[in-house]
Please model this.
Amino acid sequence: MALTTELDRVIADRLEQHDMRYTSGRRAIVAALRAIGGPVTLPELLTFSGEVTQSSAYRNLALMQEAGVVRRLVHGADHAHFELAEELTEHHHHLICETCGTVEDFTLDDELERALDDAFVRVAQATGATPTSHLIDVFVVCSNCTAS
Amino acid sequence: MALTTELDRVIADRLEQHDMRYTSGRRAIVAALRAIGGPVTLPELLTFSGEVTQSSAYRNLALMQEAGVVRRLVHGADHAHFELAEELTEHHHHLICETCGTVEDFTLDDELERALDDAFVRVAQATGATPTSHLIDVFVVCSNCTAS
DNA sequence: TTGCTTGCAAATGATTTGCACTGCT
DNA sequence: AGCAGTGCAAATCATTTGCAAGCAA
Model:
C-alpha cells in the first residue's frame, strides 16, 4: 500500500522505529482520527471505520500511543478519547462538556503558552521532577446541553 | 458527634443542602483526605482509614462530589484520585508522574491564573459554551522515578 | 417509623489478554 | 519459515449496585 501523505510517511517512520508495521488496520484508525479531526471514543471510531475490530483497535491505539502517534485522553466519562499525537498535529487543549462528555480542541496564543511553560518548568524543578508535557482541560456546558 | 473545625461546619452545611448526613464514615473520609493533604486513590484511603469500607467509600465519595465537597481526578492510571473540593481548600493544579502515577499539587501566581481564565472564557464563549472550571495537569518524571 | 446509611456480595462495563490463524517479508 | 498482526471469546479489575440490616431524626 502506497504512502499517500506526508503525515503517513512520518507515522510510518515512527512505527518502524518501534518495530511496528503500518498495516491497513492501523491506517484505517489513523485515517479515522484524521477525518474526524478531534478526540474520539473507541465506539465512535468503530462506527466510523466499520472494518476495524474492537480488540485490534484497542491494541493498536495502545501501541501507537507507545510509538508517539496517538494520544489517549481520560476524563470522567465512560470511554477514553483518542486523537493523533500533538507532534503530528499542533499543541492544543480541550474543552470538555460536563454534561455530554464531548471534547473539542482549542489553542492558546503563543505568549500565554510560553508563560505557562516557564511556570511549569519552575514548579516541576522545585520538586526535583522533569516536566515532559502538559494538559489543560476547560470544563464547560456546551451549547447543546445548555439548550436542553 | 461535635463539629470540630470550621471546615467540618462548611462541609456539614453543604451536605445538609443535599439532604445528606455528615456521618462518621464521611467524617473519616474527609479526615483522611485532609490528613494526607493531596490526591489519594481509593486503596490508599482505605489503608489510611481502616474503618471505611470499599463500597461505602466509593458511594460517599461520589455523593460528596455531587455535594461539592470532594473532587475526583481521573488520569491514565488504574485508580482515580480523590481530594477535597477546591472551594474548601485552594485553587491548584497537578503534577503527575508518568511513571508511578503519583499526583502532587501546585499553584500558579494570580496574574497568570487570571490571564488563563480570561483566555478560557473567550475560547468557551466562541463555541457558545459556558465555562465552569478548569484543570491543568503537568506530566513529569518524578525524582524517585528518575533515580531508578 | 421513615428514610438515609452501611456492608456484603454480586453485577457491570471498559479495557486487556490468550490463543489459533492470517499474512507480510 | 518466522514473526508481527488480527479476530474471537474469555478474563480483568475498578467501580457500581441490589438488598437486608443499622441507625438517626
